[in-house]
Design a protein that fits this description.
Elements: H1 10-20, H2 33-52, E1 59-66, E2 72-74, E3 79-87, E4 95-96, H3 99-106, E5 111-112, E6 116-123, E7 126-132, E8 134-135, E9 139-147, H4 167-182, H5 189-209
Parallel strand pairs: 4-6, 5-8
Antiparallel strand pairs: 1-9, 2-7, 3-9, 6-7
Helix pairs in contact: 1-4, 2-4, 4-5
Length: 226
């Protein structure tokens, strides 16, 4: 029986699926043609989980310097989602706006304390942000974001990479993908059952690890002093 410790290495996950399929286990991710295929499928599963929710394990913060008279900045991060952007020393984050809005505002050459921000483009997985108004003083920009999961390589160097998602969902997802691959990408009773188990595990883990740590709702009765 698989030991569903919360977080497991890439090698452990691949070997768990190999064992479940009755195939000999490996010592390195790139050891066999099938293990290389499993690593490719594993990356698909991780991307699916990464985009499914804001996992606490993927939360990160960073800070960059902003300069007077410079409106656009490259963030040297690999972000799945940017949670908020704020100017250091200010309580409220900047308002996120669409590209159309930031282009409209940028036609007005305005300088001052930034109040709005837009993700204008992405280059080599690094997002660019544009501020409005253009800063008129040097400061720092604080960014809270959820990072993209690492792409695992079929090499010994990634054997010990600890996958930042609950292991039972990862293993179930990889097993489902492997069964579908072995079945020539054709549906079958086994494929449907495997994907159903993956979806069930994913939903349960999302509820336990993401939704239960979401935004707080404060209810104030009518007439109660705030």
């Amino acid at each position: 029986m698989t030991d569903y410790t919360f977080y497991r290495t890439a090698l452990f996950v691949v070997n768990s699926v190999l064992n479940r399929m009755g195939v000999s286990q490996i010592t390195n991710l790139g050891e066999t043609a099938f293990s290389i295929t499993l690593v490719e499928l594993l990356n698909d599963v991780l991307n699916d989980l990464n985009s499914a929710a804001h996992w606490p394990t993927m939360y990160a913060e960073t800070s960059i310097a902003i300069q007077s008279s410079v409106a656009e900045y490259k963030l040297n991060i690999k972000a799945q989602n940017i949670e908020e952007v704020a100017v250091s020393g200010r309580i409220s984050p900047l308002q996120m706006v669409e590209r159309e809005e930031i282009r409209r505002l940028s036609r007005i050459r305005s300088f001052g304390r930034p109040s709005q921000v837009c993700i204008t483009r992405v280059s080599s997985l690094s997002p660019y942000v544009r501020l409005y108004p253009t800063p008129n003083t040097n400061s720092n920009l604080d960014i809270a974001y959820y990072s993209k999961v690492q792409t695992i390589r079929a090499s010994a160097g990634d054997n010990d990479y600890v996958i930042p998602f609950p292991s039972r969902s990862v293993i179930a997802g990889l097993y489902a993908a492997a069964v579908l691959e072995e079945n020539g990408n054709q549906q079958s009773t086994e494929v449907v059952a495997a994907y159903k188990l993956y979806q069930d595990f994913r939903a349960q883990d999302l509820a336990a690890f993401e939704y239960d740590t979401g935004a707080m709702i404060q209810i104030v009765p009518t007439g109660y002093p705030r």
